[in-house]
Design a protein that fits this description.
By secondary structure, the protein is an alpha/beta fold. The protein has 16 helices and ten strands. The longest helix is centred in the C-terminal third of the chain and has 21 residues.
Length: 381
């Protein structure tokens, strides 16, 4: 099979990853309207082709929160990455490191902070969920410091868990419950199963062994279900910023007023994000709301974007509309599920090639020169 686009990796991942874990990646909340519009709204944006312009000596290199990156793309934090492929977080972090872009480890990762740090050479970013257990929160932040994580990505849009119908119908858990449909799904993916037998990473590695009373899967599940902090407010964000003391990125911003409040915290960047369409169904797509947020706070804080990016063209469109960086979640997960570390690298190569070619055909040689003039608007039709 020739792998030419992210869709090819998605098709292959579906064949190799047990259904419950593939569906976990490939779904949104409720009607999945926002999940789908994250992608379709990118497709509505039309690029301006330019000709007879020097297209040589191009570069996608830039910086995200003062960190040099080979292209304006980071790997987004995704839970249960290690269930797409054994040791998935480690493999993805290594691929990102070699490619010269940031990797963001989720609080709800299968491989722990320490496990990823042991197998990588450069600092990665760590994503933090706000939990009610403040002692656990303090320890988690301190562990990220000890692992020399170079940025904390604080997620604000998960004070309660959006309902994702596929996960409920599949009875999603890690490791899978020993029920007939799960046994069938696992055994029908023998290579996935064999790889899982070679690793000790099967649980939420940042939680098991680090929370008092969490000794088995059942207690872990009940703890997670009650731990997301519904009382989270900007005072707590300030406490986290001070406890962390390093580069801070605030994720989950989808409203200009919230963007302004986030900028006032002193954060180094914000991520325009709707949690991949997995929280408030019916909310705006991220690319649709991006220009309004950039207009509100673009001069105050670095604005990044995630949600719906499936190609290098999507990256270029986001940069044209004012983003200083983007994040991929599903795109790298498809690669991971399909081909492991090699698949993550392939996904990054596809996106970089597409972004480079698109930028050139838009008449730009440097990613910093992309702007609103490179897409069709009412003002330049």
């Amino acid at each position: 099979m020739d792998i030419l686009e992210i869709k090819d990796l998605e098709i292959l991942a579906k064949k190799r990853v047990p259904k419950m874990f593939f569906d976990y990646v490939n779904s949104g909340s409720w009607t999945e309207t926002t999940y789908n519009e994250n992608v379709s709204d990118f497709q509505k944006i039309k690029l301006r082709q330019r000709v007879a312009i020097d297209m040589s000596n191009r570069t996608l290199e830039t910086k995200m929160i003062d960190q040099k990156v080979s292209m304006p793309v980071a790997i987004a934090p995704t839970g249960l990455t290690g269930m797409q492929r054994a040791d998935g977080e480690i493999l993805a972090a290594q691929a990102a490191e070699e490619f010269g872009i940031p990797y963001t480890l989720s609080t709800m990762s299968v491989c722990s902070i320490e496990a990823v740090a042991e197998k990588t050479k450069k600092p990665f970013w760590f994503q933090l969920y706000v939990m009610k257990d403040k002692k656990f929160m303090e320890r988690l932040i301190d562990r990220a410091k000890e692992a020399k994580c170079s940025a904390l990505v604080l997620t604000l849009d998960l004070q309660l868990l959006g309902q994702r119908h596929k996960d409920i119908r599949n009875g999603l858990s890690t490791p899978p419950k020993l029920v007939p449909k799960h046994i069938y799904q696992v055994l029908s993916r023998p290579m996935w199963c064999l790889r899982m037998l070679t690793t000790k990473n099967h649980f939420f590695g940042n939680i098991v062994g680090h929370v008092d009373g969490i000794k088995d899967v059942r207690s872990l599940g009940s703890w997670i279900g009650t731990q997301f902090d519904q009382q989270l407010d900007w005072k707590e964000v300030d406490w986290i910023r001070k406890r962390w003391g390093g580069k801070l990125i605030i994720k989950g911003i989808l409203d200009p007023e919230d963007a302004l409040l986030a900028a006032k915290t002193g954060a180094d960047a914000i991520i325009v994000s709707n949690h991949g369409g997995r929280q408030l169904d019916g909310a705006s797509s991220t690319i649709n709301i991006l220009p309004e947020i950039v207009d509100k706070v673009g001069k105050l804080v670095e604005v990044h974007l995630d949600g719906g990016i499936r190609s290098g063209q999507d990256v270029v469109k986001a940069m044209c509309l004012g983003a200083k960086g983007t994040y991929i979640g599903r795109a790298f997960l498809y690669g991971l599920g399909a081909l492991g570390k090699e698949g993550v690298t392939k996904a990054l190569e596809i996106i970089k090639t597409e972004a480079d070619m698109t930028m050139a055909l838009c008449g730009r040689r440097d990613v910093h020169d992309l702007n609103i003039d490179n897409i069709y608007t009412k003002n330049n039709l």
